[in-house]
Records
---
Amino acid sequence: MTSCSARTANQCFPWLQAIDEPLKMDSLSLAERDQQAKREQGVTETSPMRLRMEKFIKEQQREIVKALEKVDGTKFRVDEWQRKEGGGGITCCLQDGKVFEKAGVGVSVVYGTLPKPAIMKMSANHKNIIEEDGQIPESLEFFAAGLSLIVHPKNPMAPTVHLNYRYFETAKPDGTSGTWWFGGGSDLTPNYLFDEDAVQFHRDLKEVCDKHNKDYFPKFKKWCDEYFYNKHRGESRGIGGIFFDDLDETVSDKENIFAFIQDSLKSFIPTYTSIVNRRKDMPFTPEEKDWQQVRRGRYVEFNLVHDRGTSFGLNTPGARVESILMSMPLTASWKYMHEPEPGSREARLVEVLQNPKEWV
Amino acid sequence: MTSCSARTANQCFPWLQAIDEPLKMDSLSLAERDQQAKREQGVTETSPMRLRMEKFIKEQQREIVKALEKVDGTKFRVDEWQRKEGGGGITCCLQDGKVFEKAGVGVSVVYGTLPKPAIMKMSANHKNIIEEDGQIPESLEFFAAGLSLIVHPKNPMAPTVHLNYRYFETAKPDGTSGTWWFGGGSDLTPNYLFDEDAVQFHRDLKEVCDKHNKDYFPKFKKWCDEYFYNKHRGESRGIGGIFFDDLDETVSDKENIFAFIQDSLKSFIPTYTSIVNRRKDMPFTPEEKDWQQVRRGRYVEFNLVHDRGTSFGLNTPGARVESILMSMPLTASWKYMHEPEPGSREARLVEVLQNPKEWV
């Protein structure tokens, strides 16, 4: 496991499932103590961030599923899965609906143990994972929770959207919270460019960011353009959004960052339902549907070739593959040497993908 | 560049295109000397293996294109491309034909320079790349040529086939041939299992192998099952064939191996045209077409996630991406939690993919 892949999944750490047996401390593992706390005290504002983040993303998952079901008129399939070492997940998927070709909303909550090489890599970005005497611990209990979402609409005029918010922490030997950080973001992938959608998507994200820190939006938009980049094609996967990682005490305190994460995630439903409702019933030609399919192919290429979380997950024995690959579109196409006509709407999209734009 | 990825492309070394300027020796590079030899003497049985392999695969490319055009009734598109440092390639593609959804036959011939780290990695499998005084050379001119082919038929009863034969050599400072090896193989990926096809495919390959060395077939079939393995799915990509690499002087002499490569490649047309002609007009249901699309998705997963050549190629700046991704099917599908009915024909295929079978 590498530090980057551990922190930049678009699928909420599914690979961490592969790590074995948690360490036992005070005879109870972190997972067991969290279970006990939930049972005895419930989850309140004074609970550890682990429990608050888990509660929050599960609530949001229900809200998002409800909102997307309302747009589509079709129910999601819900699969709950357990991880024997502690934690588990809920994968919600709507396939071949009226509006959505595929929509997946997944939550995973994972308890496990980091081996020394993983800790060493993480120490590059998180100095405080190193013990006071300068030693790298032999192993560390960790907790990881995240919500991730991908929606591929049927209508080629309606954009694909992806979102992921996650929290990671390691436990100190006494069971208190050690190193921690939040990561996340949301990005839009249209097949046809509607400036109105691109501007709204970015304006809404900027508003949330600005409320917390004026530096966030420009920094996270740039990070998004850099991360979701199909470098073998020389083009971005989509037209932007925000992406960030390693938000820890060097950036702000835990409460403030959690508040930012909450606001960001909560802004998804109004923004995206507004965009998709504008596009879902627009007329389109078979050629426009074909173009959507070619763009879907590029989406698959990014996810399978470049996305660190997906590829790491797929290479990890024991991961829940169907939750990781829920991000795949229902259908995709590859045409040899396919190039849009110069001056066409398709060509305009590619131009923006090759030269990311500031929308707000 | 790693040694493995340098030797196990399914796309004939496209990534080698990215390596810069060849070394100059006696004022002429290897590419220039080969050009001169072709111009002045033509290519005969006494020419260097580089020229004979190039001539042979280009002839075979024409033969295969002709044979597939005859089956389909549609002409291939032919793109010839040059590599400024020396060499180039010919990419032939037939898309959305009568019989074939996509058929790609590519030849690439590349001259370049290996940097020291690449040479060090290669030395693990090829000791004689190290100089007599035990030094690793700072850089080495190399030559790589290969033919690779993928055919995805439209009819779900007709299997996808993939094939690749390649030759690699480094030049000694005096311009003579240094370290060299051949690699290659051919494998079959049906959506529905016809034992007759599987047996014929393997029997024909076994016959060619046995003619040269009785150990080849069992060894290369096992290698094929191991290499074309979608480990995140716990299943093979297809039902087998042969795969081999590093066939060098420790295995046999250059002439004998070249003769084996020639026989193997020449056996493709009769075997595959016989199989595809039996299947191309079979009736099928929309559900069977859907299953084919799901299997196409698995094919994409293997090529983008696990195939060392493809992923290395896509991560190498300057590679001809369209030649690498010619291997993608025209269309593919991903269905969440899709599982064949127990006892169905689809389930039987999956069972064989999970437990590779000896067909002959």
Note: Residues 1-25 of chain A have pLDDT under 50 and may be disordered.
---
Amino acid sequence: MSTGMETRGEPVTPANTVDDTTVDIAALLERGRTLSTPVLKAAVERLAPPMDTVAAYHFGWIDAQGRPADGDGGKAVRPALALLSAEAAGAAPEVGVPGAVAVELVHNFSLLHDDLMDGDEQRRHRDTVWKVHGPAQAILVGDALFALANELLLEIGTVEAGRATRRLTTATRKLIDGQAQDISFEHRERVTVDECLEMEGNKTGALLACAVSIGAVLGGADDRTADTLEAYGYHLGLAFQAVDDLLGIWGDPDATGKQTWSDLRQRKKSLPVVAALAAGGPASERLAELLAADAKSNDFDSFSEQEFAARAALIEEAGGRDWTAQEARRQHAVAIEALDGVDMPPQVRAQLTALADFVVVRKR
Amino acid sequence: MSTGMETRGEPVTPANTVDDTTVDIAALLERGRTLSTPVLKAAVERLAPPMDTVAAYHFGWIDAQGRPADGDGGKAVRPALALLSAEAAGAAPEVGVPGAVAVELVHNFSLLHDDLMDGDEQRRHRDTVWKVHGPAQAILVGDALFALANELLLEIGTVEAGRATRRLTTATRKLIDGQAQDISFEHRERVTVDECLEMEGNKTGALLACAVSIGAVLGGADDRTADTLEAYGYHLGLAFQAVDDLLGIWGDPDATGKQTWSDLRQRKKSLPVVAALAAGGPASERLAELLAADAKSNDFDSFSEQEFAARAALIEEAGGRDWTAQEARRQHAVAIEALDGVDMPPQVRAQLTALADFVVVRKR
């Protein structure tokens, strides 16, 4: 299998002189997908019917009628990171595969449950599982994917696998905490920027952090190395989420697969919103008035494009858009800096750096 | 702490001459509760608000208004088994405590999700969590309890803890398979006795089996010993469920906390029903006709006591009640026999035997 990387055959050069512009991001993501998808599919096949079918629908392998489909399985940033994680510890990328699959299983467990809790009807351009197969299947298959993640790691049977499972469990608990915070924010008028960052760190940072440590732990890395890799992953997750929050308001629906002004329609207290509300000034105050009225409005569901566009314009005018873009760059910088703390092969470092760059410039 | 057992001070006698009539079941269950509840409460306190409160409500520690309550925490058979499990491997009962708590957490994760999926509004004489705190909290807190179970075991950090977590994960997967089967049975006209037993083995047998092996594994038992203890637990679980199925139709609502004819109201394809349908003869055929008509009826929800009583009488007349009572005794016998395969202290064996006896004669 060509990963687009082994062929470069560069001499080993000091870490900070490797040029990350030579990294082929598409190939890196494709390698993660290619190595992890067969293992993911085999794991899902262990599920009793009809859970196997429901899970296959969720992953985009079949359509709602059960016919084979070639769905959009997502960007696959996490599997790519898990393989690089193994390489960062000096192991072969394949060592990270069970970790990559376990992280994907946990991520998709959370998507299945969150979509149901949030009432989201669309994901990756398709109807969500609860919409197609009902709420009970969304709950049940989510539970099954979570259990499967632990099963896959623990059946390796090594001390390292136990440590990896423990890190995954910690990340999963944070993920759940983050979802609890996210839900509670919807019922509150004001959320501080710090509260929003904490929620996003739990909901997005923790699992991305785990993706970056899990391969290394499976490859025998010590806790200090794993913690440092997690610091990179955590801040990368916050950068990722800041970009997601921008796309959730100003993203191109054709690229994101979501509605226009998606997060505004869902009254999400995302970073641009909380930053705009915290900024003060006329636009910030006008936005606060509008959102307070929206919270009590019975007509919210029939709002026009123009009404959401007006709110988005106020968020931008109050500085929420710029602040969030800067926050993405700040978190990106902290992530990159964390890589200094781990002694890893320079090409792995270049790839982790390039992935971080990719995360902040992506359009979907 | 008095456990009601250390004081007997009998000489060690051969296993099969210990008289299990001297075992104080109430004290045995109380010991499990006393040793595990503080650890369970401390674990639940780790949850971020409002999940800690929702979980405390579920466990009966507070009421719907958040006031302290002294709720019915269930029979606590599983914690009692987990402590005996440690003793069966020659360890102190305390060694089984993290296992007891982890099993309770998984059991309650499944109750939270199952009550929501099944639309059950009452449990242990109280409104269920989704009814009081909403579906999102029932999903979220269930997820959190499941994650907490793994966290609690894995933070022990030993190889034994990893093995225990793996067994718990396997049991959890079976639990989920069983719930999937149970849900699918509701939409089917006919379910065979074997299918029903398989479902009940997954839904009840697997976790009870894990309760009986987890303490031993934490205490250093080898896989053969753990497997044999699981055989006892699995068949005990099937006996337990057969009795539950009898109580689900003919139980005293004051004792069970459920409605009269509870399982019939929920169209459950439980053992007495499937055995009656499989029996043949006039009563069996009449029952089949009635249930087929019920499945299409729009008035089912307004059925009177008499209509359910008539169905229960047909089940009994067709032999479903007797067959299920016999099945409980058969599974009980197989469970007891499995104990021959493990070399354990005779008083532990007597206690496991007495607990098995208790399970088949209980009224709630």
Note: Residues 1-17 of chain A have pLDDT under 50 and may be disordered.
